[in-house]
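Allow me, if you will, to draw on your knowledge of protein folds for a short while. I have a record of one protein: its chain in single-letter code and its fold written as discrete structure tokens. I remain grateful for any guidance, and I place the record below:
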Amino acid sequence: MILLLRCSLPFITANPERMEMVENYGGNVMINLIQTEFSKLKRQKTIFTIMGVLLLFWVGMTFWNYHVPQKNFEDFYMKYGSYIAMLLPFLLGLLFIKIYHVEYQNDTLKELLQIPIPMSRLFYAKILFLFLAAVIIMLMNCLLIIISAVICRVTDITAYQTLMLIRFFLTIALSMPFAMFPVFLITALASGNTIFSSTVCFIYSLAGTIGVSHLAGTHPISSMLNILFGNQLLLITSDGENLMYIVDVVFFVFITVFCVEVFYRVKRGDKYK
């Protein structure tokens, strides 16, 4: 398979990144595509930007909490988690825009279209990569929170509380990307237009965060924040409201998947079905 791909793409060898993409093809396609995304990300400055933002956020939160009397470790990481959950969608959105735009920037999309992989599958591979990136980001924040709690003189840091911290932050990591599906769709429809997609991402993330108490049920980010942090945000949420929030998120996920399938088949000529 790899030999056939090389024969069909002789010009790809001029670019090491393109060559790596072809050589990695084969076996489990989705796994190889996700591995390729990690490989490409190592060459990008975006990851350092995200790390810098997270470190600045951690320093600010640590400084602020240092001068505020702390109740217990659970309250400490729940408060920290509520703020990082508001920041996470924007970071994930920018990361997705970058890894999507790089296909146009490096002109690799033309070669990818000649490999028997549907464009929709490439799109979903990038989303799965984003879920893994969210898990890595939140696990790093688990370590930063423990360090911050020690600095802020929180005394009840136990193994059980640490496990609860990890479980809760993994829940955030595996939940918040679903709230960003509309941005993923806009990015695909914009065909890698970074400025437009980034503007939409900023406005969408800001609106969902600021309007958390008013847009829940209509805005996926607001709905997801209410599901995860209803008590911490001092919002009254019933089981019926939580169901409405879940339906809101699932609805936009469904719309994104449907529109992506139609877009790639009609506009992109998804001939490898």
Summary: DSSP finds twelve helices and no strands in the chain. Confidence is low (pLDDT under 50) at residues 1-16, 21-27, 269-273. The longest helix spans residues 73-105.
